Amino acid sequence: MKLKIIFALLFSSLTNLACDAGDLIPESGSPLPLITLDDAESQEYELTTPLYRIRVSIREDVGGNEENILGNLDEMAANFLDCQFDEGANIGFDKFTIEGGEEIPPLSQLSVFVVPFTFRCEAENRDTCDGIYYFGNDLIIIARENRGLCDNFAFWKHELGHRYGMAGDHSNQGGFEPCIDPAGCIDLPFELGD
Ligand SMILES: [Zn+2]
């Protein structure tokens, strides 16, 4: 119990720091318990988005309309690709070779596990995620809502950025901005995605 309280205090000081811009009300919720790659891989990916046919699993406790969620993921993916690549949003339908020669499979090969909120994660250099991309598994876990700083699925484009060439250590992140910027956020002083 003590640990929980300490974590809550730590967490609230972080969100306060992030919200000094003023008109945001920080979420008071704690991150969800740990979600691992194993958890994600054991899901059934029975849903597909209407446009890119991305394979999706939505956790039972995610609120909102399923069709809206799927449409939202498609729309934001198209926006990201259109912003990031001269070839535009159509590259998501086919394999696409990025700078450096790596071939990225069509988005229909990607698996996405949607969870309701910021979650504890096993990522390099962090233990709390709003999204995570597993290189080699072509799998994203994405939080629908986050700690009150941004719009829904704010880090979806960030994780897609990783799929399309942004390094795991973010050393080349500058080449992906502003196309991956979290939606609806006000200048975050630290990065929440992974
Ligand atoms: Zn990242």
Model description:
The protein is an alpha/beta fold and 194 residues long. It has a single domain (2-176), classed as Glutaredoxin (3-Layer(aba) Sandwich), CATH 3.40.30. It is built from four helices and nine strands; from the N terminus they run ααββαβββββββα. The chain has helices at residues 2-18, 37-41, 66-84, 156-163; strands at residues 47-48, 55-58, 96-97, 103-104, 111-115, 119-123, 126-129, 131-134, 139-143. The strands form three sheets. The protein has a five-stranded mixed β-sheet with strand order 1-2-5-9-8. Strand 3 (96-97) and strand 4 (103-104) form a beta hairpin. The protein is globular. The protein binds zinc ion. The site of zinc ion (ZN) has 5 residues, from helix 4.
Provide a compact summary of the structure.
The protein is an alpha/beta fold and 194 residues long.
Number of helices: 4
Broad structural category: alpha/beta
Radius of gyration, rounded? 16 Å
Low-confidence stretches: 1-27
Shape: globular
Q: What's the β-strand tally?
A: 9
| Neighbour order of strands in the largest sheet | 1-2-5-9-8
CATH topology: Glutaredoxin
Major sheet details: 5 strands, mixed
**Helix content class:** 25-40%
- Which CATH architecture would you pick? 3-Layer(aba) Sandwich
Number of domains: 1
Bound molecules: zinc ion
CATH hierarchy, class: Alpha Beta
What is the average of the pLDDT values? Answer: 84
| Share of residues in strands | 15-25%
What string, H for helix and E for strand, traces the elements in order? Answer: HHEEHEEEEEEEH
The span between the termini is: 28 Å
